[in-house]
Amino acid sequence: MIELDVRDVHIHFGGIQALNGVSFSVRGPELIGLIGPNGAGKTTLTNILNGVYKPTRGEVYLNGERISGLPPYEVARRGLGRTFQVTRAFRRMTVLENMLVPAMALHPTGRRQDFVDRAMEILRFLTMDHLAYEYARSLSGGQQKLLELGRLLMLDPDLIILDEPFAGVHPKLRETIWEFITTVHRQGKAFIIISHDMETIFTLSRRLLVLNFGELIADGDPDEVKEDPAVIEAYLGKED
Amino acid sequence: MRRIDWRWILTGGALLIALSAPLLLSDYPYWLHVAIVAYFYAILASSWSLLAGYAGQFSFAHMAFMAIGAYGSGLMGKYLGTTPAVGIVASTVLAGFVGLIIGTLCLRLRGAYLALFTIAFSEVLRLTLNAELKITGGPNGLSLEPLLATTSRVPYYYLMLILLLASLGFMYWLAGSRFGLFFRSIREDEEAAAAMGVHIVRYKIAAFVITAMVAGLAGGVEAHYIGLVTPNILILGQMSIVIAMAVIGGIESLVGAAIGAILVQFSLELLREVGNWRLVAFGLLLMLTLRFARNGLIYPLIDRLVLQQAREAVIVGRAQKAKQVGEQA
Amino acid sequence: MEINFPFILRLLADGLLIGFIYALMAMGLTLIFSVLRVVSFAHGEHYMIGGYVAYYLLDTFTGLHPLLAILLAGTATFAIGAVFERIFLRPLAEEKVERPGEYAILVTFGLGFFLQYLTLALVGPHPKKTRRYFDLPTFELGPIKATAATLKLGTIPLSATRLTAAVIAVVLMLAMLYLIHRTWLGKGLRAVSQDKQAAAVVGVNPLTMSTLAFGLGTMLAGMSGAALVPTFAWVPAVGAPAAIKSYVIIVLGGMGSIPGAMLGGLIIGIVEALGTGLLPDPNRAFAYRDAYGMVIFALVLLLRPTGLFGREE
């Protein structure tokens, strides 16, 4: 069972306190939505979780091991994977090569053919296997998004953080991504999903974290969080 | 009807010409010398393309590593009495070690900062070699013992050719291995590669160390062939020429860069009478290639002639796989 | 080794004077960077060409006023820069280039290579030198004594050529500062350097500003060269050490920061002079002259890449 502990995490850039004492824990295969107005610190929090930033105060523990301060590739090896807001496939590498990178990074030994087989399996699940030898840059935006998700699976992470997976995505693709999340979740993986798509997030997630101005203002059941006055103010108050 | 496999024909033909060159050029020993120098540049250009085109590290310190190989071996010979062979091996290792240091220092540098830092390193090395007259001979250079006991160029020709083929073979193997995969992912998107578990530090440094050693080895051998090395091998103009060769040949192709270097070197020699204008033309060609043919001039040709075959094979393979997959589903 | 104060003051004075020219050249480089986000690796060659243009103008038209020669040299390098930007860097401004950083480095490097060998082919390798532009009026005012070639402040001699160059540099820098902060053009440049799209929305054409910025940058380099031609023996390779100093300066002062470039220029001038003067062995000290700046440069890159005043890239 996966254990993530975020303890009193602070980070500031220049003069701005981007995160101010954020604490929460994840136990087991939860499906968590992370929401908040623009600039609240959601991506910053993700960057801290996966090691791009180091908190100025506070720590992050994954399965009992301190990961705050480790470089991203070490965090990835310990079972935490993430996507980026803007799709970042390896453009001048083929779809298959994209898939192989995490597998070969995590497993220094191991037959390439085994990795290829696993990659093709995932690609088939995403109905992209016919694109295996295409360069990622010739894929459509939606296909690249799916590629990123498939690539993430090759890491076999226990905790997956998705940064705006539904942003600018047409309904059919949204469905596919939804299915991806629910299927993989059923296989026992935890998710933290950042999204502005309120409808989807409220229906999809079992637990909601709300960030505002770098602080965690709500953490709990989506229906309760929806009614939380602080949350409402955070969103409506912004529209002044 | 079997399609002609151009890959084998072209490679075979090129090898045949290369191997029999001393015979063909026996009346023109000068051109044999040109070929030796051309192979030397080919090693430099292709190893630079591995560092820059594959791993995305646009370092201008490449000639510095080559110089470490050359001066290292020369100085060891002069002060420690080592034989050229020992000197070359030792200075190659030294170049790798310096590559390790530079690679580590460059870890957090990107783009222009990396370029500038490596330029600074190269220049400081050059100035030091120039300034320390008593040790290095300063601007007049350092003389080196010949590597092979021969007055003919032919053995050196074959040595350099073997070195070129060996280093190309090694780097090609590397590019096809996990190293190549990780190098390219780092060039494509370092942050995403890190998020995917690629050990950025290890592979960036590895890229520097490996290419530095290849450059150092080439430098050592060349220096013991020519018999003299001066700090002028380190002027930025020389690095520019190597870069230009790699760009014209095709930065992302080791073989393209090597062929580009050989063609450029021979062209420069053939146009010797034109004097400095040939370099002007070369510079213009470099700029135009970058602007209008970023994949280089040689590589796309190889791609079209030769890889077309491979691509067709892949399409056929894909179709078969798709059929298999369809049958399995 | 006793500290020889007058000697050190001399070095400082020399360094400071040259530092102004370095600063001017670095200002051009930093202007290019702040608008185009590109470090021009051909900056030294524009400096070199400016020098040659001034030399040949003065050589051919004997009555030509030196200041006019410098202006014309600047115009020539402006033209070269603008044309180059239009043809080779326009795709960057239009964001049609994959891996723009790489491309910019390589293509400006190519330009430098091309310009250097073009000049070499046209003028040959023999050094050119002009005589100093202005003779100082001979006078005496207390501790200040002036002859045609030297101005003496107490015991500190300042060469007329360096003094002239420094004054020209200061005037040009002030002119640039005026341009950037008090004119519509300057506003446009600053707008584009901060936010291309926002600038476009308010009616500033980022493409034109890019061309202008590059041209101005190369113009400053050319004028620096033209101002220094009486001081140094001019060869086509003279661009490289000058360029490297510019890079050192903009990294030291912070890329994109004009005050940083100015301050950095002075610092480098002083560091070089002191380094050359204080090392015991004069020959080696001189050979290492360019290295001092670079060691500082390497340290700054490693320890504080944003420089003294710079902003995050």
Helices and strands, with pairings:
The complex is a heterotrimer of chains A (240), B (329) and C (313).
Chain A: E1 3-13, E2 16-27, E3 31-35, H1 42-50, E4 57-62, E5 65-66, H2 72-77, E6 80-82, H3 95-106, H4 112-125, H5 141-154, E7 159-163, H6 171-186, E8 190-194, H7 198-204, E9 207-212, E10 215-220, H8 222-227, H9 229-236
Parallel strand pairs in A: 3-8, 3-9, 6-7, 7-8
Antiparallel strand pairs in A: 1-2, 1-4, 4-5, 9-10
Helix pairs in contact in A: 3-4, 3-5, 4-5
Chain B: H1 6-24, H2 29-54, H3 62-80, H4 84-105, H5 111-131, H6 133-136, E1 142-143, H7 154-176, H8 178-188, H9 190-195, H10 200-226, E2 228-229, H11 236-249, H12 254-270, H13 277-292, H14 298-328
Antiparallel strand pairs in B: 1-2
Chain C: H1 5-36, H2 43-60, H3 66-93, H4 100-123, E1 139-141, E2 144-146, E3 150-153, E4 156-159, H5 160-182, H6 184-194, H7 196-201, H8 206-228, H9 239-253, H10 258-278, H11 282-287, H12 289-303
Antiparallel strand pairs in C: 1-2, 2-3, 3-4
Description:
The complex is a heterotrimer of chains A (240), B (329) and C (313). Chain A contains nine helices and ten strands. With 240 residues, chain A is of the alpha/beta class. Chain A has a single domain (30-52, 71-239), classed as P-loop containing nucleotide triphosphate hydrolases (Rossmann fold, 3-Layer(aba) Sandwich), CATH 3.40.50.300. Chain A has a six-stranded mixed sheet with strand order 6-7-8-3-9-10, sandwiched between helices. Chain A has a four-stranded antiparallel sheet with strand order 2-1-4-5, with helices on one face. In chain A, strand 1 (3-13) and strand 2 (16-27) form a beta hairpin. In chain A, helix 3 (95-106) crosses helix 4 (112-125), helix 3 runs parallel beside helix 5 and helix 4 (112-125) packs across helix 5 (141-154). The model of chain A has no long low-confidence stretch (mean pLDDT 90). By secondary structure, chain B is mainly α. Chain B has one domain: ABC transporter involved in vitamin B12 uptake, BtuC, CATH 1.10.3470. Helix content of chain B is 78%, strand content 1%. Chain B has 14 helices and two strands. Chain B has helices spanning 6-24, 29-54, 62-80, 84-105, 111-131, 133-136, 154-176, 178-188, 190-195, 200-226, 236-249, 254-270, 277-292, 298-328, and strands spanning 142-143, 228-229. Chain B has a two-stranded antiparallel ribbon. The longest helix of chain B has 31 residues, at 298-328. Chain B is globular. The model of chain B has no long low-confidence stretch (mean pLDDT 89). Chain C has one domain: ABC transporter involved in vitamin B12 uptake, BtuC, CATH 1.10.3470. In chain C, strands 1-2-3-4 form a four-stranded antiparallel sheet. In chain C, helix 3 packs antiparallel against helix 4 and helix 6 crosses helix 8. Chain C contains twelve helices and four strands; from the N terminus they run ααααββββαααααααα. Chain C has helices spanning 5-36, 43-60, 66-93, 100-123, 160-182, 184-194, 196-201, 206-228, 239-253, 258-278, 282-287, 289-303; strands at residues 139-141, 144-146, 150-153, 156-159. The mean pLDDT of chain C is 86. Chain C is mainly alpha-helical and 313 residues long. Chains in contact: A-B, B-C. Chain A binds chain B through residues 50-52, 71-73, 76-77, 81-82, 84, 88-93, 97, 100-102, 104-106, 108, 120, 124, 129-130, 132-133, 151, 155, and chain B through 178, 181-182, 184-185, 188-189, 191-201, 252, 314, 318, 321-322, 325, 329.
